[in-house]
Amino acid sequence: MKRLALALLAAAALAVIAPPAAAQNPPSAPDSLRPLVLRPGDVAKIVVWGHADLSGEFPVDENFDLFYPIVGAINVREINVTQLRERVTQELGQLFQRPFIVLTPLFRVAVLGEVMSPSLYSVDPTMTVFDIIAEAGGPTRDANQRKIQLVRGGEAIPLALNATAIGRATLRELGVRSGDHIVVARKRITVQELSLMVQVATLVLVAYQTFR
Q1: Into how many domains does the chain fold?
Q2: C-alpha to C-alpha distance for 26 and 185, rounded to whole angstroms
Q3: Which tens digits make up the pLDDT trace of 124-182?
Q4: Is there a single domain that holds both residue 98 and residue 117?
Q5: C-alpha angle with apex 179: 106 to 79, nearest 5 degrees?
Q6: Which of 65, 138, 163, 180 has the greatest count of CB atoms below 10 A from its CB?
Q7: Of 70, 105, 140, which marks where a domain is finished?
Q8: Whole domain around residue 155: which residue ranges?
Q9: Which of 60, 80, 105 is at the close of a domain?
Q10: In a domain, 6, yes or no
């Protein structure tokens, strides 16, 4: 009886000391809800209306620095895209009244697999998967467009969408990050293989009819 009482006291003490699992590991927000950030190799496309000399595409270097005319180096390591836009607007506001700025982040995404021109592309996160496949020259005739994968760090990232919805979803909605790979899979039987099978079947049929 004494052992049972001690065991219950120990369990109660552990329950008080140990914080709940949810408090230890709070669920992280989906990538699609997180603020957009720029990483080395990404590009900030900035358009300042009425000022072509202050507009252009500005890459982020390995130190997270973006060099902008007049302002100089802006480090983006600790700020998101919205904060960067506010910073540029504030800096230009000292030169002229009410600057109107459009800032579009361009991420580095590899488009691989069954596309005409697999390569690394700088893409706007508002583009759809089909848009960037078109940027890569479009799918090959052997492409399985119902099987598109998002690969990060060598691992496939599960997407909570069906095959058709993935193609129409924006990169932002899919939570695509800079450095990710979008891979278009190959059909199980390609057009070339199907053509070869038809030719073989035709030869077999001709041979059968000739020698029977």
Answers
A1: 2
A2: 35
A3: 999 998 999 999 999 999 998 888 889 998 898 877 667 678 878 889 888 888 889 99
A4: no
A5: 55
A6: 180
A7: 105
A8: 106-188
A9: 105
A10: no
Token pair 């129409």 in the structure block, residue: 168
Distance CA 58, CA 85 (A): 13
| Spatial separation of the C-alpha atoms in residues 147 and 166, rounded to whole Å | 9
CA-wise closest residue to 92 among 72, 77, 64: 72
User: Has residue 2 been placed in a domain?
Assistant: no
User: Helix %, strand %, coil % for the chain, to 5?
Assistant: 35, 30, 35
Please answer whether residues 63 and 79 qualify as being in contact, where contact means their C-beta atoms are separated by less than 8 angstroms.
Answer: no
pLDDT bin (cut points 50, 70, 90) of residue 8 is very low
Judgement on whether residues 100 and 121 belong to the same structural domain of the protein: no
- For residue 134, give the 3-state DSSP assignment: helix
Give residue 148's pLDDT: 87
Residue 210 resides in a domain:
no
CATH of the domain at 82: 3.30.1950.10
Question: One-letter amino acid identity for 30?
Answer: P
Provide the pairing of β-strand 181-186 with 155-157: unpaired
* Structure tokens given for 85: 């836009």
| pTM assigned to the model | 0.67
Q: What are phi and psi of 42, to 5 degrees?
A: -75, 170
Q: By C-alpha distance, which of 70, 9, 83 is closest to 44? A: 83
Same-domain status, 101 and 143: no
CATH value at residue 162:
3.10.560.10
Tokens encoding 121: 């592309």
